[in-house]
Amino acid sequence: MKLCRFTQAGVTRIGKIVGDAVIDLSGIPGVTGSMRALLTALPDLLDAITAADAPSFALTAVRLEAPINDPQKFLAIGMNYAAHAAEAAASGIPVPTSQLWFNKQVSCISGPEDAVELPLVSDKVDYEAELAVIIGKRCHDVAEADALDVVAGYMVCNDVSARDWQARSPTFTLGKSFDTHGPIGPWITTADEIADPQALTMNLTVNGEPRQNSSTGDMIYAIRQQIAYLTTVMTLEPGDILATGTPAGVGLATGCFLKDGDRVAVTIDGLGTLENRFVAEKRRRIPE
């Protein structure tokens, strides 16, 4: 099942994608405008959501929004592909000896049709194709063997990074959290549709030019290991987003950073394509 948030006639609703149409789920008792609330109640709502077949709208007649806009956490792991860790090291970023996690502030989230801003205070904005995991159950201290049982689904993510600001903060958080720098989408594909999340091809292009191409099988720490590690420390909640790392080919390695008008497309097998246009910031930010 492909779950989405969409806007039609000025109203944003929850829906599911079937072929080239969006089926509106807002008439189902218990379905509100919050994807986080839906994921929390999904076991109880699943039969009704599966059976729903109307009303529907053509995909071309709606605007797809960020599939979840109200998660409690948006966490990302750094340098989780060996080739990317090597290119980062060549740029002066130390290779971690354990899982390296940082926050992307939830205010950075943007959708599959949103423009992503190039801040006036940064000239080193970069792209990172990533598989995003969506947590479906409140969980703590999860064993690796059971880790995929707490996953609601998967989506495409671009972990947009302002590299100059990332270098100023050892936690990476500032350089990862500019407004609009968390594009996700185009929808959430539920876990039952993905036989093996460690066997998905992912690629990224800038203006049609290939920049990244890899498989999620190349992760240093698999998704099971990531969830077990995180839940040793914290409780994960339904709707929490885990960005699982990016492969080699980022602009940091070549000095090819994003510029006004660039279109970045990230595609992952079975999850669709997330495409965003990058635009120069219109308002001035003055750093403290």
Any overview of this molecule?
- The radius of gyration is 18 Å and the shape is globular.
- Strands 1, 2, 3, 4, 5, 6, 7, 8, 11, 12, 14 and 17 form a 12-stranded mixed beta sheet that branches. The protein has a 5-stranded mixed beta sheet with strand order 9-19-18-15-16, with no helix packed on it.
- Helix content is 18%, strand content 34%.
- The protein has 2 domains: 2-64, no CATH class; 74-280, Alpha-Beta Complex (Fumarylacetoacetate hydrolase, domain 2).
- The protein has helices at 35-51, 82-90, 163-168, 173-176, 223-233, 251-254; strands at residues 2-8, 11-18, 21-24, 56-58, 63-64, 74-78, 100-103, 109-110, 116-118, 125-126, 129-135, 151-158, 161-162, 182-190, 201-206, 209-215, 241-243, 263-268, 272-280.
- It is α+β, with helices and mostly antiparallel strands.
- It contains 6 helices and 19 strands.
**What is the 3D shape?**
globular
Question: Mind telling me which CATH architecture of the largest domain this is?
Answer: Alpha-Beta Complex
| Share of helix, binned | 10-25%
SSE ordering: EEEHEEEHEEEEEEEHHEEEHEHEE
Radius of gyration: 18 Å
CATH class of the largest domain: Alpha Beta
Number of domains: 2
Looking at CATH, the homologous superfamily of the largest domain is Fumarylacetoacetase-like, C-terminal domain
Q: Averaged pLDDT, please?
A: 95
Q: What proportion strand?
A: 25-35%
The major beta sheet can be summarized as:
12 strands, mixed
Structural class: alpha+beta
Number of strands: 19
The tally of helices reads 6
